[in-house]
Write a structure and sequence with these properties.
This protein is mostly helical. About 40% of the residues lie in helices and about 10% in strands.
């Protein structure tokens, strides 16, 4: 699959999720689904790009604390849907990036193990499962 990053200047990890095939063998069409980090540091040009791109929903999977710390820039004509994947309790106990970096020095696989743990929580805990059901 080709690079699907979008030309966003001050956002993180903006990319199309085009070309993925589901179990019914249906493919996500181009220009239909974008994933990204938060929208809090977007430039005016970034906001204009996303509005011109046709973004109609902003589904925010972050916790209340994350949203308060870095609110999203508002996109004209896009409905904002708050749908946190992790509960505040799970997020509060999450490993900070600084701690991941420190722990990786002692154990090079620490980051990998941490992500596996996060994915485990997403699959097995009710709160994340409900959030993704709402999304899909």
């Amino acid at each position: 699959m080709k690079n699907q990053l979008l030309p966003i200047q001050k956002g993180s990890n903006f990319r199309q999720l085009t070309g993925y095939v589901n179990r019914e063998h249906l493919t996500i069409k181009p220009h239909k689904l974008i994933r990204s980090g938060h929208l809090g540091q977007l430039t005016d040009d970034d906001v204009k790009f996303l509005e011109d791109y046709g973004v109609v929903y902003n589904m925010d999977f972050r916790t209340d604390h994350e949203i308060t710390t870095m609110p999203d820039r508002v996109l004209r004509d896009a409905d904002y849907i708050k749908n946190p994947v992790f509960s505040e309790e799970i997020a509060k106990n999450a490993v900070r990036t600084v701690d991941i970096t420190k722990n990786t020095i002692d154990d090079p696989k620490f980051g990998y193990k941490h992500l596996i743990s996060c994915y485990h929580d997403i699959i097995l805990n009710d709160h994340p499962r409900q959030a993704y059901r709402t999304f899909f």
